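Below is one protein, fold included:
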Amino acid sequence: MKNMHIRYAALLLFVLLSASTSSFAQTVLEQKISAISAIKEIRPLETSEFSEKYVTYFTQPLDHRHPEKGSFRQRVIVSHAGFDRPTVIVTEGYGAAYALRPQYREELSKLLNANMIFVEYRYFLESTPEPKDWQYLTAENSADDLHAITTAFKSIYPGKWIATGISKGGQTTLLYRTFYPDDVVISVPYVAPLCYGVEDGRHEPFLHKVSTPENRKKIEDFQLEALKRKATLLPRFEKYCTEKNYSFRAPIEEIYDYSVLEYSFALWQWGTPISSIPATTASDDEIFSHLLAISEPGYFTADSPNASFFVQAARELGYYGYDVQPFKQYLSIQSSEGYLHRLMLPEELKDMPFDKTLSKKITKFLKKQDPKMIFIYGQNDPWTAAGVTWLKNKKNIHVFIQPNGSHLARINTLPEAEKAKVMELINEWLK
């Protein structure tokens, strides 16, 4: 009996010591994150860029105006540089999986040695509510998500905050500043469009003027050649889509036509060298391979992983159209109008109207206010057609356009003098 008591006491001591060690092993940052009531889960991540890195799950209302409607978990990645450092909140427009990589560090966070709060957008990857009720996927709710996260993490990082994002993430940076102008000191949207409609109307004229007449002709000649060879290339195209298990809401010939129409936008968007375009005398293999490399038909699938983006584009973020005129005699479609609704929206939303309230609100904010903002665009990127490049005579809003740049335009891709100017502005604002 005596031995049993000794063993019990030893076991109790071991349990207490283990609990104490476990508690002690938790870093100060972990303890602070765990104290945020909305965070129910926190896991450490490997990092080669920061002293600590965690993935957390932040409980958000589906509808911030009506919390009783339910909630979902939003994935937020926390990367630590120091409690005394500024903090960059990355307003991602899509999923956050790539930010889990040990070597990932956003540009401004690196340039400023800043903490990084990386927010996955609602309705993408692990931040998707179940069931997926589309009515709560709004820009305003996404701004409210960011406000809740920023407010919570300011208890940990009381220094100055910068919001930044790329493409749809840049749109998010812009709309976040519009809804909550005082949450951050600086906003840096990269390649962020501000579209006024589902088929905005500014992208097609842009593509008729971009670069040089010689380059534009080479692109159009390739598109025409791909359409002229439809009889031989369409069977290959159909076989490729079947092997990929793609399903479409339109006949395969229409999808082929849309892939050709998308080609010029996609080529300029990603800065593909014009020299890579095959000659019109190239083999079927070369023409087909190049078309798929630039304009992959999976983009038009009925169950695209980008469905949440398409819903927002159709609802309030806007999108672009195609100019079918140069290709009309070879197309199976009379018009491309309404293609986003017809091909890419969930069936139950195909009649959803576009609401201009958001673009009007953002435009009014930018005209009337003068927040500290730096816009970065690429000169040849078709999204720049809808960019915030029209603002003049503002003290704090600055627009930088990378010469011959694409959708990959960043601070580090700007000419040295402009890059220095950007950093000078940011460092001055952070003082």
Notes: The two ends are 70 Å apart (CA to CA).
